[in-house]
Amino acid sequence: MTIARNPFKLRASEQATNEHDFLALFGARIVDILPRDELWNRLIILASAPGAGKTTLLRLFSPEVLRLIAEQRNLREHQELARKLDELGALSSERPNVMGMLINCREQYASIQDLPFDEKTRLRWFFALLDARIALSTLRSAITLAGGVYPDDASLVQLVPRERIVDAPTSGDEIYAQARATEQEICLALDSLQGPRAMSTTGKIQLSILRVLSSATLLVDGRPVADRALVMFDDAHALSVDQRRILREDLEDRQLRVARWVALRYQAFEPTELLPTARTEGRDYRELRLESWASGSGFERVVQEIADRRSRSAELPFDSFASSLSGAVSHPRDQDRVGRLLDRVRQRVTLAASPSSRFDDWISRTNQSESGSALEQAVRWRLLEILIARDRGHPQLPLDIPLPTEEMTRREDSSALAAAALFLAKEEGIPYYYGVKTVTLLSSSNIEQFLDLAGELFEKLLAVAAASLTKRRYLTAVEQDATIRTISQRRLNSLERDVPYGADVLTLVNHIGELAKTETYRSSAPYSPGVTGIALEMSDLRQLLDNENDMLPRLRRALTSALAHNIFDARPDVKVKGREWLVLYLNRLFCPVFDLPLQYGGFRERKLDQIAGWLAEDQLPLARLTGVQ
Amino acid sequence: MAPWWSSYFLCRSEEFLRFWGERTRAPGARILLIAGAGFDPRATEVCRALSKLGAKLDCRLVRFEEVGESPSRAYLDQAKANSDAMLALIPELQEISIQMRSEGRSVGGRRLSEAFRDGSIFSGYTDVVVDITALPRGLYFPLIGTLLQTWRPPESAAGLPNLHVAICENPSLDARIAEEGGEQVDWMFGFSGGMPLTSQADVPRVWAPVLGAGQRSRLVKYHEFIKPVEICPVLPFPSRDPRRGDTLVLEYQDLLFDSWRVATRDMIFADERNPFDLYRQLWQLETRYAAALSPLGGVRTIVSTHSSKLLSLGVLLAAFERQLAVPNAEPTGYVVHDGLRANDAEGELFSVWLAGEAYRGGAS
User: Fold this and answer.
1) Would the CB atoms of B259 and A494 count as touching at under 8 Å?
2) Total number of domains constituting chain B
3) Is B258 in contact with A5 (Cβ distance < 8 A)?
4) Are A263 and A390 in a shared domain?
5) pLDDT tens, A579-618?
6) Does residue B283 sit within a domain?
């Protein structure tokens, strides 16, 4: 395993160039997203925003990685992964059961659509190129699983037809030569500054190679190498719309005996498909959305496993990432501050309640309650302040008779307590965003987002460990909070650059954030612990996202882009007041910029024309106005 | 084998005016200017300078059609004013409309290349000048690549005029122009260097990104796309601001040293104001790596440009000659921070002679 100073900055799929490094960074629990049924006989579509872990998951099924797991299955660090792969049928006790072929759809396929040929010819080129690359990948995979050297051992490969195959080479050498020539011819034509020459492609508009593999047994040196073949199309969003549609139709063919997985980003979806409730019943494929799976408790376990693996593999190793992030305001300086603020809050609330005697019993109960830390006591005082504000906001103010403490107990709830903690943190500059659970929440079910956050915190941890006289090996809550707020602001500032229609997406985020902040910090905390999103009526939204409907195109583009890039966490079909709504929660990473809580639940309804009005205001995005870089 | 442009001709500022003054006064001189009809306030400066010198000038003005939601559309008035100014200077100017995108994919480079494949366009001219000041990277790489294919440098094919590239540089304006969008990285049209071939998948990749400010997310995307085994970042030195290289290292230090594990010995320093210096360094880099790793199956060098247009020309020349791959994430448009200012049109004029009589029999 290569040792890195900050292993959180490495990406398992992209930067771990060898399979040992890849496995060292791989968290086994992500495999749980794969269903045990239908995995090998039905088209599987893996969809997510960028950074959710699709490519990492696909790479697991590459021959090099599967072979290594099979060889090292008894090592403690690979046992869980090997067991999960056994259960899926990808591994047997001795060897991989799957021959995986990974096809990256970014590689020039879409530009075939730009050639000056008729549609049929372009599709023939597309399928010819795919066929050639799948054939080359099949040879490579088979030879690797058999322990040979690709392409030198291509002559050892033989396709033995179970049925009659027309016009298909069966020896490895022939397959290699033909596929290589086809790929070269098409690629050169696509990149030619002098223009492509017409090619004599008479192929079919379907993946012929999958039909061949479905009706033949592949042998290397006379022996089968795996029980089943799996072709994985990564980054399928990079294909043109027509290519994607026709490829999907072709892969839906249930006669195929090759497993087919397609990974793509949401940007490939039609706007109406972006909503997680898009129905999949009756389709010939199964769609897996990584964020939907990750929103369960599985995500927390996955990222913590990943974090611990990485912490342990650093130049300066840490046994556990979680224990490096202090989960309490524990620094002595912080404790002093908290003690002073308790006195302050107590005085303020007592003063605010006077001269009425209505809250005397509540005050004395809070006064008597000395359990818990100074901070917990201060939060209870702040809760009392919220309860007083709520009571005073009541339209018919009752008589000035002390309210019983039972009434206080009845009105207290955990969300109001959470709001009190949030209010206090903002008012008094107490750290709010800290601890490993917070980092997990801030990741919004996206592994890359988690790694970015954890990477910055780990960087700070290394700096503290190097600079501290006591060689301190943890970050205080203050340090974590400050780091997280910086990352949050940076992410907001980069939206404009990173996301299509970024300026408009930024405007939406800024307006929703400011609206949420205003609603959250109302003195009575009516939406406790806070508002973090807006809701649109589903019927309005369907109209807006329908491509045929040219209503508010600017808003549609911005919203589609934001949904495709995980800027909003969309919860459709939420029923409120007898109507159905789509709730758009801010990606949790933006919450610190607006001092918002990380819990879901609070939102405000808005009409489409109100939101479109935000874009039409044509003002500079707030992030720029505030001058934060 | 020596680099094609081991000797070269480059002039700037006063030299630019002197050089073009002499050329336009030469008997029979007739210049074809190919320029972009963008919003960039410097877009007309080269045309204006050549006109002032009394050049007999024809122009193909490339109007690139941005998609409806491009942020560049906020500057349509400025683009129109630039076109009008060009038209006033050259009434016979011909416009070429180029569609930039199709289904979100960048197609402009391919379309522009198609428009200039026919060599007969250039007959009757003594000089062809490509003014890249207001052309996006995704257009001028394929355009100059196509012209170089026709010219076959450095001597150039018989009967063709001299080929030049001109730029009006203004670093302070460049720093305020930010690219927006450009999510998908692909190989630049005409500059894939054969990288999409499956046979190249296992060949180690060396990446030389020419660093510029504010390019973090783009650099990350390029890195993910290229998957290099070694990175040789290019820093500007010498440069107008002597600390510019240091500032860039500070900006990207976590990326360079933690994420990518760049060794400081692999950094390349190239003269900010001389594209041929960068060209030669990239040429040497590729030659050195290729020689060292050929017993192990070779290496592929990939170059990308995140800095000024002048330096990007060095990338283009090295990539064209050595068939290096160039990735590109075509932005959906540009935003000028703090808006356009009255003095933004000011800049330093550069002229780079790429092919023609200066190189016949060896350039000086």
Assistant:
1) no
2) 2
3) yes
4) no
5) 888 889 999 999 999 999 999 989 999 998 888 888 887 5
6) yes
